[in-house]
Every structure is written in structure tokens, then in C-alpha cells.
Write a structure and sequence with these properties.
By secondary structure, this protein is an all-alpha fold. The chain has one domain (3-75). 71% of the residues lie in helices and 0% in strands. It is built from two helices and no strands. The longest helix is centred in the middle third of the chain and has 49 residues, at 29-77. The N and C termini lie far apart (81 Å).
Length: 91
């Protein structure tokens, strides 16, 4: 659930709970509004938790990529060892 959807559920629930005087037989709109507000609040909390987890993953992935790039740069800057001379021939 997105943050916008959670806020929408909270708003619709509040309207049903506090701003309507409609009586529907067999359905309590106050209860429906309360349920929608609770569902919206739960969705909002879960959306924030999900966003925090994803941002941590992105941060960790970027740090790992930077570390790999730094190792590759260091390896490229390292001078190559001088070539080895072949061993003398054996007779």
C-alpha cells in the first residue's frame, strides 16, 4: 500500500465516521469508518517501514559498489612488476 492510498483510507474513514448522518440498515457507517481509519493507519506505518528498509538496501548497495570501484581503481594504479628474465639454459 502506498502512502497516498493509506492517507486516502484514513480520510474516507474519518468522513464516514464523523461527517455523515446516513443510516443504512444492517451497516454501521461509524464502524466502517473506524475500520477504514485503522487500516489506513496500519498501511501508513507499513509504508514507512518498507521505505526505510528499501533506503537501507539502496545505501548498502551503493556503498558496496563504491568499494568495488575503489579496489578496481587501486589495482589499475598499481605499477606492474618488471618482467622476469627467463632462466639460463641448461646444457
Amino acid at each position: 500500500m502506498t502512502i497516498a492510498a493509506a492517507i486516502f483510507l484514513i480520510a474516507v474513514g474519518a468522513i464516514l465516521r464523523y461527517a455523515t448522518n446516513i443510516n443504512v440498515e444492517g451497516v454501521s457507517l461509524d464502524t466502517v469508518g473506524l475500520i477504514l481509519m485503522i487500516a489506513g493507519a496500519a498501511g501508513l506505518v507499513l509504508s514507512f517501514i518498507q521505505e526505510a528498509v528499501l533506503s537501507n538496501r539502496r545505501r548498502r548497495r551503493d556503498a558496496e559498489a563504491e568499494e568495488i570501484a575503489a579496489r578496481e581503481r587501486a589495482a589499475a594504479e598499481r605499477p606492474e612488476p618488471p618482467p622476469r628474465e627467463p632462466p639460463p639454459p641448461r646444457y
